[in-house]
Amino acid sequence: MLGTFRASFSLQAAKVRARKVKDVSRLKVVVAAAVLSSSALAQGVQLTDPQAAHIAYTAGKLDITAAKQALERSENKTVKAFAADMVRDHEVANKQAIALVKKLKLTPKDNDTSRMLSRNAAVKTKALSKLKGAEFDRAYVENEVAYHKRVDDTPENLLIPSASNAELKDLLKASLKTIQGHERHAERVAAELK
Q1: 134: nearest Cα among 192, 55, 68
Q2: Angle, to 10 degrees, between the axis of helix 166-193 and the axis of helix 49-73?
Q3: In which domain, by residue range, is 38 found?
Q4: DSSP 8-state secondary structure symbol assigned to residue 23
């Protein structure tokens, strides 16, 4: 309960800071901090398989949404190619997750962590929607680097240890490798945009 309160307070504080911040680079830090805070607060929580599956699916779905925003707003070929990769890879992963939960007869269960990821992503999407051109490209890619770093930590330290089903654990491990690849890809694109 205290973790939920802290998470909610942290999100509200990030929203207030985001409204007050005029400088784009500071705004990017606020948005990244909001994304990072959700998973950090979830550490130490023991999840059920349905909760872990919901978090993994939600994280993928949110990255698809962010990538689609980049595909619509960016004119940079490298950024658009990166975003297209994110859509493709996360759609494949989410289809695999859906197939597995059907096979296992699991019903993914919404939880504080997946709800917080969704709220934080809404803040990020809104902030990015105010940017254009190279400014948008840099903010999107820098956020992708931060997001994937945090998401790396979540499967490794929260979802995989919490999963009791071996097939779910294997899918989460495979997803972790993909996420790590996305992080490296995002870092390369970010370096190119500087």
Answers
A1: 192
A2: 30
A3: 2-193
A4: S
Exposed e or buried b per residue across 17-33, where buried means at least 16 C-beta atoms within 10 angstroms of its C-beta: bbeebeeeeebbebbbb
Task: Find out whether 145 and 189 touch, Cβ atoms under 8 Å.
Answer: no
> How far is 36 from 18, CA to CA, in rounded Å?
15
How many structural domains are present in the chain? 1
Q: Are 45 and 158 in contact (CB under 8 A)?
A: yes
- The rounded distance, in Å, linking the Cα atoms of 67 and 168 is 25
Mutual angle of helices 77-104 and 49-73, in 10-degree steps: 160
Per-residue pLDDT of the chain (194 residues; tens, 9 = 90+): 434 434 443 444 444 344 433 333 333 333 333 333 344 444 456 899 999 999 999 999 999 999 999 999 999 999 999 999 999 999 999 999 999 999 999 999 999 989 999 999 999 999 999 999 999 999 999 999 999 988 778 888 888 998 999 999 999 999 999 999 999 999 999 999 98
68 burial class (0-12, 13-18, 19+ CB within 10 angstroms)?
middle
Report the CATH number at residue 60: 1.20.1260.10
CA distance 150 to 56: 13
